[in-house]
Amino acid sequence: MERTGYIDLAVLQARVKEGLSDLFPERLWVRAEISQWSPRANGHCYLSLSQTKDGITVAEARAMIWRSSYLTLKDFFERETGTELRAGITVLVRVQVSFHEVYGYSLVIDDIDPAFTLGERAAERQRTIERLTAGGYMELQRELALPLLPYRLAVISSGTAAGLQDFRNHLLDNEYGFAFEVVLFEALMQGEGAPASIIDAIDRVQEGQFDAVLLLRGGGSELDLACFDDYSLAVALATCPVPVFTAIGHDKDVHVADLVAHKAVKTPTALADEFLACYIAEDERIGMLGMRIVKSLLRKVGAMEAPFVAAMHRIRMAASARLGLEVSRVALQEARIASTDPRTILDRGYVLVTGEDGKLLKSASRIDVGHNIGVRFGDGRLKATVTEVTTGLIK
Amino acid sequence: MTVTMKDFDYSKAIAELEAIATRVEDPETGLDDIDALVTRSKLLVKQCRDYLRTVRDKVDSLDKD
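^ Those are the sequences you sent over. The predicted structure of the assembly is below.
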């Protein structure tokens, strides 16, 4: 018997399409994890969105971003979040529910909210910090003591990192001539595989004898630094028995790896300075000790010389006083001689008067009118004839 | 004098320098003793400074600290 109650597949698909279209006439925002990500050469990007619960996938849908919006959307998201758009991240996307009779159900993405991803990450980071705090991991590294002169340094970095060379140059070609041994343990420094790769490097470091472990990112893309917020990596760093220094070098954020480390700095050069500083301090200490000994010696010698120096001082002072006395006596005599010199008096305006016989006249009463007299000044003389004589005290 | 860094114990040398400084500072220490102490301290200072600038051997007393 021929069955009659059926419809064609095309009819079914058309109805589903219509039903979906009625159900979701407008675009809507959906939260999901990107579980697959495959941009194509033609410019479109195909992906899978999914949701998991307790590690089990509870929802999954095919999605795509058309070429017309793919690059704009990707650039915008990566610029805002510092994270590469790829599988493994949770996003909030605007989708149009779509159904194609041949290709089936899919979601067409035309917008993305970077703030949501940032918020998710911040919340995740906070949960990681709380877990680490509860586990007692946050302070472990800070309780470790760095050796007085850290010498053997294990650097975990990408072998091609530009900052690695900066670090080596700054540390090993230091102007003081201090010596260090630097051993590189290569690891992935960004992306999904980074935490496992770094943890492996930390394990390898512990097989050797090192004074410090240095986690050095040293440049490259600033996308995908979320790996430094990874819980397992933080635990591996915190439980490393050797002090761990980080130089992840991202100005915007402090990573969880920085928080659990013995010390975090921003740049490879600052990292090198940390170790140089230990040596500079020690070099100064040695110098101070040497100075202390030499100064003590000088003080001691000085103390022994003190009586001798004091005697010399007294002799010098006495001699100088005696000499001073003689000098002033001579000066006094000179002054006396100078004051009795007639020329000194004549220079002050007085004159000497001589009579016609050339003898000094000391009285007006011995001169008559008409006598010729000589008048002597300090700087010359003249002859004069007396025209009037007045005796008695001059008033 | 050549410093053989292999046998050099930095922490010990620093401790000796400290002890010398204390002795030199002591008023009871005579000048004759001081002369020898100062000579010794100069050698120690040089050895310590060289140590900071020398590539070390694999096993080192500082690592045991």
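DSSP finds nine helices and 13 strands in chain A. The longest helix of chain A spans residues 268-340.

Shout if you want it in another format.
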